[in-house]
Each structure stands twice: as C-alpha cells, then as structure tokens.
Amino acid sequence: MSRQIEKVKKYTNGSLPDSVAPYAMSNEDLGLVRVAAWSAKSVYASDAAHIGHVTQLEDVSDYQPTQHMENIDASFRDGTVKASRVQMFCTHTESSSRLLVVAIRGSTSKRRDWTINFDDIGRGTEGEGFVDSEDRKYQVHGGFLECAKAMVEKVSEAILSVLSKTETESSDRGIQLLFTGHSAGGAVASLLYAHMMSKNFSTLVDLNSKFTSISCIVFGSPPVSNPALHSENSTFISIINEGDPVPRIDKDYIESLLMVYLCPEPTVALHWDLPQMLLDNAGTVLFMKDGNQGFGAVANDVEQRKTKRVLETTIFGNPRAHKMDMYLWKLKMVNGNF
C-alpha cells in the first residue's frame, strides 16, 4: 500500500491544490470538533482501553464526559441499526454548560456492518418525509437512509433517557445537542441531524425544542445526498483528511482508483481524470491538509461548488488516511505513536 500511495502522489492531481487555504475556525467550533472526534473514536468500543492512546478530553477541551449515557446496540442480522452512544458532557467553568452528544459508530470488520454501505451505493433514494423540505427535494444514499430511519426511535429514546437522568441538575444555559460519527457513522449522523432540523414529523423532530442549539460534525464521511445537505443556522461540518478515499467513494470512483493502483507509475507529470461525483458530501467541507496544521477550505466558495470541484479532480488514494486515529493525530489528540 505504501508503494501505491507514493504512486498517487506522482500525479499532478495526487494532492490537494493550493486553492485549499488555511481556514480560521472559531474557538467554540474547535471545542465542538474535539468533543466530536473523541466521541466518534470512543463509540467504536465500550472499554476505555481501546482509546488509551487518545489524549484525555479534559486536556484539550473545556468539556468533560459524564457517566450519564445510553448505548444502542447494532442490529445483529443486517446492520441496519449502527451501534451508537448518547452521552452528556459538561464544563466546570463559572458559566457551566452541558452538551449532549449522539455518536454513531462507523463500519467495523463485521460483515453486517458493511451491508448498508453498499446498498444503493452512489445512487439516490427519495428523501421525502425525512429530509425533504417544501422548496428542496433530495436524492439520498439508500443504505444510509434506511439506517437513519431505523434509528430515529432508538436515538429518541436514548436522548430522553439521558435527559431524564440529568433533569435535576440545574443549568442556566440549557443543553446543546451534537451529532457526530466517523465514516458511515458520519453519513447516518448527518441524516439524523438533517431530519431533526427539518419540518418533517417524528419523535426525534419533536425533541428539537429541548435544545438551545443542534450541531453536526463528522469525519471521513462518504457522499450522502444530491443536492448536499446543509444548514444556514447551525454548525454542520464534514472534516476530510487529505488522501482519505471514503469521502469520495462510489462505484465509479472505486474503479478509477483501482486503475491508478494497477497502472505503471508515471515517469513524467500526468493528470489522472476522475469521474464526476454522483452524490455530495454533507455540510461545510473542511480539509486536513498534509503538512499543514489546522483546517483548510476553498475561500469564497458559494454553495461549496469550488470545493466539490476539488473533490472531483483530486485523487484521494490513501486508505490509511481514513482511520479515525489519523484524524485524531492531526487534531493533536493522540499520545505518541499509534
């Protein structure tokens, strides 16, 4: 794989272009990103030892995890319901605030967990009654949509359960809600967030008024819908590590990337033509560029059109870049090597 990764870099479009410039994130959003990343990693396993190399959250964030949580088990037979964790986080400053995080687990090595990933891959299913609005209709990845629909009741019940455990704890600033997830978990988290922010009907939408704000931050999430899910009134971010192929993945892209791997290494500078994206990434796309600290974005990008062009013309061919550990490492949230 190291040889294939080096081969990708030989192409003129084998790395992110200069149009992806440093992006100044607010301290508030950066705090949410760190909590989201920690939660997206911790949901992969119930035992603390699994994330022993991850920096303690209190070392990088004002928020600290509490014992108030509910776990949702993955469905055994077909993977329609992904394992998830709903957990309360609190600050211990003078202006104490609470953050409820819904973290959806990404795909594991278990076959059932990959079932939804390749269900209707790259094609859309009507989003009517779930994410559609009066003025905008969506085509949504069928597998992720089926999963999100199946999880609405379970996530609603888990949220209410955690809220009931903390209702006696006073807070003048109310409670914020954050959806997060890595890989396919990020795709499902994006759909649940978009559904909760919509004017459709469900037990999850009914909980909207219980929170002072609702946000979504996902990592390495694959394309979800057409047009892209977005929000004008809250934080909705999709973080993509340079080289991570999953945020670009669909059937045509897989075939093109395999051809890059199979073809001889170019001896002169060449451009590799890539297929157009069939579905779009959710939220505002921010890149984690190799060799750069912080985040990158395309400046003055109306409706992310230039960002989509970057995604469509750049080879994302480093599967190692997809690991949640790599996202944590670039966020400086790991201890030593992993």
UniProtKB/TrEMBL annotation:
Reaction catalysis annotation: a monoacylglycerol + H2O = glycerol + a fatty acid + H(+); a diacylglycerol + H2O = a monoacylglycerol + a fatty acid + H(+)
Gene3D superfamilies the UniProt entry points to: alpha/beta hydrolase (3.40.50.1820)
Keywords: Hydrolase
Fungal lipase-type domain residues: 101-249
Classification via Pfam families: Lipase_3
Entry keyword annotation includes Hydrolase: yes
An MF annotation (GO) of this entry: hydrolase activity
Presence of the UniProt keyword Hydrolase in the record: yes
Similarity-based family: Belongs to the AB hydrolase superfamily. Lipase family. Class 3 subfamily.
Protein name per the record: Alpha/Beta hydrolase protein
Organism per entry: Aspergillus keveii
